Amino acid sequence: MTEQNDNSALNDIIARKRQEIQQLREAGTEVFPHRLPGPVSTAAQARAAQPGAEMSCAGRITQLRLMGKAAFAHMQDTSAKLQVYFKKDTMGEQAYDFFKKYVHVGDFVCISGKMFMTHTNEITLAAEKLTLLSKAVRPMPEKWHGIQDTEIRYRARHLDLLANAQVRDIFILRSKLVSAIRRTLDAKDFLEVETPILCASAGGASATPFETYLRALKMPLFMRIATELYLKRLIIGGLDRVYEIGRVFRNEGLDTRHNPEFTTLELYQAYTDYNGMMQVLEDLFSACAQAAGKESVEYRGININLKPPYRRLSLPEAWKEHCGEDIHAILNGKTFNRPALEALAKRMHVEHGADTPSAKIFDRIFSVKIEPLLEQPTFLTDYPTAITPLAKLKTGDPCITERFEFFAAGMEMANAYTELNDPEDQLDRLQEQMRQKQAEHNEEVDVIDKDFVEAMESGMPPTGGMGIGIDRLAMLFSGNPSIREVILFPTLKSETEQAPDAKQ
To answer: Per-residue DSSP letters for 229-284?
Structure first.
């Protein structure tokens, strides 16, 4: 059938539904009533009831099978799907005729009656009274199953959720994971806080921010790329354990692991270090595994064991083994040894040019030689100072910081530091980042946030901090390799352009 014929058929259905609505209104029926006729139970509660129990349930009609003087339907709410039996003798002729003429798949109804068991042993609600709650003007996506164009699913997520139970399950799981995180941190006496989304400067990460403008004060503002610097100011202010779950924004590319707006958990704890953050992460993942009801997940055909304790792997040791040289050979204190880095990249057949920032060259070598080692949950520890301006140095080694990244399924899940609390060292590190920005035209470096450095001069205790990507956490636990499958409304290109992973 051509697109024109499809549109014509759809327009006919919509016109017919609107005509029905008009007929109902003329007959004095409330098509979109303000409220339910009385208290209701969920479909799950009705399914758990004993035969003979009187129940009232509300939900959407998702299937309907008419058989003359009787009919079967499925009614759906968030909790479950419930079978409903309509019979003229039970409802009365007038009510049954109303049901047959005006209630269709997609409509919301409230149904009261008694529970009974069918001959196939399915608990069913025998309708005695029906109240129309809302008419659907557009048809339900009956043929949605099997559609391969995921971009259509993302654009019409409401239809995706209606038609695909497994999609609903993903977002229910995501909500359970976030709730488990909150419960665990609250039990550890962390305080949940909120920090600004619009900032005078975008610090706390190496990323390109979105810029906007505040007309009232005639000043540019940036959408936050991380919550880190504000949270550390709260540590300085005497709130010893804080966390925030919220959106951050980075003006970068889209792919299966990246969306311009995404959700992070950041937490900071005074009087601990990155070792303490490892313990917190294992506790959080244990809580998430319990909430998800699983100790392992299948991800891209690989079984990932989620049960702690997790492996610890030193990045300098892994680098020496898999790159064939000491990592210090490409480092020069707080910067990279550019000639040595380029020479290594050439030996590793890693693509780069004269204008490629050193940090990106390092990242490409890392992706080729180290990331493939990180399928099972792993703490990769001790990163170069050149790419970690906010962490304390390893004792006696100016080239390496106390930082770990946590990987699972080859995907970075978390990033943590023993936080730098020396304001002089912090300012020097940020100034070095700005020198790198000018020398290598690298826009993705940490900026100098003078307010943060000034706050640090008031005194900051030894602190451990960590950020966890909530979207990637949901990807891992649901076994989904695309971030768009775990964000309800992902960022998409205009409808005339295809998103990068739309066919994946």
So the answer is: HHHHHHHHTT--EEEEEEEEE-----BTTB-SEEEEEEEEEET--HHHHHHHHHHH
- The number of beta carbons lying within 10 Å of the beta carbon of residue 371 is 15
The CA angle 176-166-144, to the nearest 5 degrees, is: 145
Which CA distances in Å does 475 have to 177, 408, 479?
A: 11, 11, 6
pLDDT tens for residues 430-439? 888 788 767 7
Nearest to 361 by CA among 381, 336, 383, 382: 336
**Residue 126 pLDDT class (50, 70, 90 cuts):** very high
Q: Cis link prior to 33 (omega < 30° from 0)? A: no
* pLDDT for 143 beyond 90: no
Q: Which of 253, 256, 234 is nearest to 244 (CA)?
A: 234
Overall size of the chain counted in residues: 504
| C-alpha closest to that of 412 among 383, 444, 371 | 371
Helix H or strand E segment including 5: helix 3-26
Cα separation, 149 vs 496, whole angstroms:
14
Q: In CATH, what is the architecture of 3-134? A: Beta Barrel (2.40)
pLDDT band at 493 (very low <50, low <70, confident <90, very high): confident
What is the spatial distance between Cα 214 and Cα 216, in angstroms, rounded to a whole number? 6
**Euclidean distance between CA atoms 455 and 458, whole angstroms:** 5
Domain ranges for the chain: 3-134, 169-197+224-485
Amino acid, res. 47: R
**Cβ within 8 Å of residue 347, ≥6 positions away:** 324
164-212 per-position pLDDT tens digit:
889 999 999 999 999 999 999 999 999 999 999 999 988 887 788 999 9
Which fold is adopted by the domain 169-197+224-485?
BirA Bifunctional Protein; domain 2 (3.30.930)
The DSSP annotation for 14-79 comes to HHHHHHHHHHHHHTT--SS-SS-SS--B-HHHHHTSPTT-EEEEEEEEEEEEEETTEEEEEEE-SS
The pair of structure tokens assigned to 371 is: 């990331």
Cα–Cα distance, 64 to 72 (Å, whole number):
6
pTM: 0.90
